[in-house]
Amino acid sequence: GDSVTQMEGPVTLSEEAFLTINCTYTATGYPSLFWYVQYPGEGLQLLLKATKADDKGSNKGFEATYRKETTSFHLEKGSVQVSDSAVYFCALSSSGGGGGNKLTFGTGTQLKVEL
Amino acid sequence: GAVVSQHPSRVICKSGTSVKIECRSLDFQATTMFWYRQFPKQSLMLMATSNEGSKATYEQGVEKDKFLINHASLTLSTLTVTSAHPEDSSFYICSVRGFTEAFFGQGTRLTVV
User: Fold this and answer.
1) Cα torsion through A107, A113, A114, A115, rounded to 10
2) Are the beta carbons of A11 and A88 closer than 8 angstroms?
C-alpha cells in the first residue's frame, strides 16, 4: 500500500539557516504530493503541492520538487524565520488531485526556529 | 479564516464515559468529512469517512461501535468515543475536502484517565 516516510524531528535551527526536511514515498500509479503545515493550536494547512513528476511546488519561500526517480519530495527553505516554527507533514494522494481522494501522511516533523 | 472548526480542542474524561467531538464546515457544504487519529510520533491515520445522511465508512481495524460517527447535516459531523479507555487517548482531527485540497480542523486532544 501507499506510505510516506519523513525525517524524524524535532529539528532545531537558528533563524536564517537553511532547512531541509526529507520525505520519500511508496505508491502505486502517479500520486500527487503535498506538504502540510500545522502551527501551534491550529489545523493542518496546505503549504504546497505537486501533481506530476518534476513539478516544483512553492509557497512562502518553501519549495519541494517531485522526484519520481528517487520517489522523494523534500521540503526546503533557504532562510527560516521564527514564525516558521511548526509541524510539517508530507502526504500523498494516490488518485491525484487531493480533493476527494484519500490522503496518506508521514509522521510529521517538528521544526523549531530560534533567534 | 478557518474553513473547518473542530470542538473541543482538548478534553479530559474518565474511563468508561463517552466523549463527543464536533467538526463543522464553515465555508461550504460537505457531503463527506473525514476523521483521523494521530498517536505520538506516528502518522495521521484515517479512521472513517463520514457521509451526510448515510452510514459512515470505517477503515479496517476501526471499531464502528466504539467510534460513532453522525453526519446529520451538510456542515456538521460528530465523532463520539464511547466507553472511553486510556488507550483511546489520542489526537483526533477532522477534514473536509474541497475541489483541489483538503481542509483540516485544529484537532482534539483526548485524554482518558
Assistant:
1) 180
2) no
The C-alpha atoms of residue B4 and residue B27 are separated, in whole angstroms, by 8
Q: For B15-54, write each residue's pLDDT tens digit.
A: 999 999 999 999 888 888 999 998 877 788 999 999 888 8
- Distance of alpha carbon A85 from alpha carbon A83, whole angstroms: 5
Q: Which triple of cell numbers denotes residue A7?
A: 525525517
Question: Are B107 and B34 a contacting pair, CB within 8 Å?
Answer: no
On whether any CB of chain A is under 8 Å from the CB of B39, the answer is no
pLDDT digits (tens, 9 = 90+) for A58-77: 999 999 999 999 999 999 99
Query: How far away is chain B from the Cα of A13, in angstroms, using its nearest Cα?
Result: 20
Q: CB within 8 A of B71, min separation 6: which ones? A: B33, B50, B51, B52, B53, B54, B56, B77, B78
B6, B9, B101: residue with CB nearest A99: B101
- Among the partner residues A44, A101, A107, nearest to B104 by beta-carbon distance: A44
The angle formed by the CA atoms of residues A25, B90 and A101, to the nearest 5 degrees, is: 40
